[in-house]
Amino acid sequence: MTWRDIKLSWRWFREWRVAEIIGLVVAIVALVVGIYHLKEINKTVDKVDRMHGELTQQLQKTDSALTQVRETLSTRYLSNFPTFMPDIVKLVNEANESVVIFCDIPGYAVFSDSGNANQYCHLLEQKRQNPKFRIELTCMNSTSRRNYIDEQFRNFNWSDPTLRQRLNTFAAAQGISVSALQTPPQLIAAIQAADNETFRHTFLNKAVQTSAPMPIYFWIADNKTAIFSIPALSANAIEYGFATSDRDLILAFQNMKRRYDEAVEKRASRLTNRK
After folding, report:
1. With contact defined as beta carbons under 8 Å apart, do 238 and 80 qualify?
2. Residues 249-260 pLDDT 10s
3. Is the pLDDT reported for residue 165 higher than 50?
4. 3-state secondary structure the chain
5. What is the pLDDT of residue 158?
6. What is the pLDDT of residue 15?
7. What residue segments make up the domains of the chain, in order of their start?
8. In angstroms, rounded to a whole number, what is the distance separating the alpha carbons of residues 275 and 271?
9. Among 167, 86, 98, 160, which Cα is nearest to 127's?
10. Beta strand pairing call for 225-231 and 217-221
11. Which long-range contacts (CB under 8 A, 24 or more apart) does 127-130 make?
């Protein structure tokens, strides 16, 4: 190898070394830039996560506040029958001193919502164990109840899936075979029997029974809160349910019940005097 070849080799090695160094420096710089950008991206992600968390908390607080406002309104719409039945169950459950009931039949919702109707009766029976707890019931008399149930179920739509489901649930709750409820008279008789059993077992046959039309139904707990229902001859609903804590409205309900009770008492007194 000549001296010239050695010089050329050294120059090639030096140029290659410089290129390697430059490439290494560029790679290090790129790595540093990448790390910097990664940190910035992580900061941005953390900031977005914090903002998302804050917005979620704000939305939850807003939703909670709206719910509280809705629930603190003195009178508010609940839903159609029998969807508001759980509200009646809750009202009875939370009562400490008394439950005053003014409704069509003792076995309220026994067919339409058997599960909640059973719980409603069970709670009343539990409350009754306390001798200081007061339960009052004003309802239709036996003749009016029979006519009312007959009117509601004489044209029962057996093909309606919702009604079929209620029929199955009712039959199971009453320990009756569905095959024994295949005609309107059979169904009406079963509902009447369930209502009569509720009157005997839950209310101990104690009630003011009226033959007068009842334009509204209500349940009052401790003279402070109430659920009331307005019957409606509508294709979409049988009744519309509301909750209230309005003192004047509750007082009006109590006065209505008292007038009905007094009318029944006067009628009974007149019949007694005739004898």
Report:
1. yes
2. 999 999 999 999
3. yes
4. CCHHHHHHHHHHHHHHHHHHHHHHHHHHHHHHHHHHHHHHHHHHHHHHHHHHHHHHHHHHHHHHHHHHHHHHCCEEEEEECCCCHHHHHHHHHHCCCEEEEECCCCCCCCCCCHHHHHHHHHHHHHHHCCCCCEEEEEEECHHHHHHHHHHHHCCCCCCCHHHHHHHHHHHHHHCCCHHHCCCHHHHHHHHHHHHHHHHHHCCCCCCEEECCCCCCEEEEECCCEEEEEEECCCCCCCEEEEEECCHHHHHHHHHHHHHHHHHHHHHHHHHHHHC
5. 83
6. 52
7. 1-62, 77-141+201-274
8. 7
9. 98
10. antiparallel
11. 127/92, 127/95, 127/99, 128/204
The token pair at 21 is 């160094």
Cα distances from 125 to residues 26, 41, 115, 221, in angstroms, run: 85, 64, 16, 15
Pick the CATH number of 77-141+201-274 from 1.10.10.10, 2.40.30.30, 3.30.870.10, 3.40.50.720: 3.30.870.10
Its pTM stands at: 0.72
Per-residue pLDDT tens digits for 68-107: 545 456 899 999 999 999 999 999 999 999 999 999 999 9
pLDDT score of 55 more than 80: no
Tokens of 192: 């009447």
Residues 6+ apart with CB under 8 A from 94: 221
Cβ neighbours of residue 262 closer than 8 Å, sequence gap 6 or more: none
pLDDT at position 48 over 80: no
Amino acid at residue number 163: L
Q: What separation, in Å, do the N-terminal and C-terminal C-alpha atoms of the chain show?
A: 149
